[in-house]
From TrEMBL:
EC code(s) of this entry: 6.3.5.13, 3.5.1.2
Record-given protein name: Lipid II isoglutaminyl synthase (glutamine-hydrolyzing) subunit GatD
Subunit structure: Forms a heterodimer with MurT.
Alphabetical GO biological process terms: cell wall organization; cobalamin biosynthetic process; peptidoglycan biosynthetic process; regulation of cell shape
HAMAP family on file: Lipid_II_synth_GatD
Lineage: Bacteria, Bacillati, Bacillota, Bacilli, Bacillales
Reaction(s) the record says it catalyses: L-glutamine + H2O = L-glutamate + NH4(+); beta-D-GlcNAc-(1->4)-Mur2Ac(oyl-L-Ala-gamma-D-Glu-L-Lys-D-Ala-D-Ala)-di-trans,octa-cis-undecaprenyl diphosphate + L-glutamine + ATP + H2O = beta-D-GlcNAc-(1->4)-Mur2Ac(oyl-L-Ala-D-isoglutaminyl-L-Lys-D-Ala-D-Ala)-di-trans,octa-cis-undecaprenyl diphosphate + L-glutamate + ADP + phosphate + H(+)
Pathway: Cell wall biogenesis; peptidoglycan biosynthesis
One Pfam entry name: GATase_3
Gene name of the record: gatD
GO MF term list: carbon-nitrogen ligase activity on lipid II; glutaminase activity; transferase activity
Family: Belongs to the CobB/CobQ family. GatD subfamily.
Length: 258
């Protein structure tokens, strides 16, 4: 079995080492005996992303985001076709904003997105920076998700697109409605860096399972020994709880207990 991962604009959208998400997916698939090909997709090239089982896009500065926005418009139909054929999409921060309808800058300029998510983003006056803890349903009990946010954009979801997570600690989409990220079918966007999938191995496996469904198989692959990863997560939640003066939740397998 071979899994094809498309990495969109790795030279322009890697401000917070979001390429680590590609590395995590590749490693966790290979450890299970799954062959992986990572396809680099750069601005101006003619790569057909319909051959990808999973597409990843990171975050970048405003200038780089504007360059990507222009290229994405030319690639829009191809990405839409890939999604219609079952490709999973994960976009982080600036990449997340570009999956929506538009990003409105502080000067009022609107940078168009490709509309895979029914959402829009406007620049805020204050940046939301810091560690985030959120709860996310992964086809079962709520999973505690950790990440790091650093964004001034405020993203608002419209009817037709659901929040991906609910904020326990941090700002999330806009700092006001308690939502974090967005989900529409197999398209996911989030503000969480970390890299996100390094801090959340079960989320990585869940996305791998979705991508493998495109091959006619599911997520019934063997478990990995994530003892050290889980120990790191337990330490992180205890540390955040100490900072916030709150009772520490349990974050082992199966979700959260408060």
């Amino acid at each position: 079995m071979k899994l094809t991962i498309g990495h969109l604009y790795p030279d322009l959208l890697d401000l917070y080492s979001d390429r680590g998400n590609v590395m995590i997916l590749e490693k966790r698939a290979r450890w299970r005996g799954i062959e992986v090909e990572v396809v680099r997709v750069d601005a101006g090239d003619a790569t057909d992303v319909r051959g990808c089982d999973l597409l990843l896009m990171g975050g970048g500065m405003d200038r780089e985001q504007s360059l990507v926005a222009r290229d994405l418009q030319h690639r829009r139909a191809n990405v839409e076709q890939a999604v219609a054929e079952g490709t999973v999409v994960l976009a982080i921060c600036g990449g997340y904003q570009l999956l929506g309808e538009y990003f409105e800058t502080g000067s009022g300029e609107r940078i168009p997105g490709i509309g895979l998510l029914d959402a829009y983003t406007v620049a805020g006056e204050r940046r939301m920076v810091g560690n985030v803890m959120a709860e996310c349903p992964l086809d079962g009990p709520m999973e505690t998700i950790f990440g790091y946010e650093n964004h001034s954009g405020r993203t608002y979801l419209r009817e037709g697109t659901d929040p991906w997570m609910r904020v326990v600690r941090g700002g999330g989409n806009n700092g006001s409605d308690g939502t974090e990220g967005a989900r529409k079918g197999r398209v996911f966007g989030t503000y969480l860096h970390g890299p996100l999938l390094a801090k959340n191995p079960r989320l990585a496996d869940w996305l791998l399972g979705l991508a493998l469904e495109r091959k006619g198989t599911g997520g019934g692959f063997k478990s990995l020994a994530d003892r050290w990863e889980e120990a790191a997560r337990e330490h992180l939640v205890r540390r955040l709880a100490e900072l916030d003066g709150m009772e520490s939740p349990h974050v082992g397998t199966g979700g959260t207990k408060k």
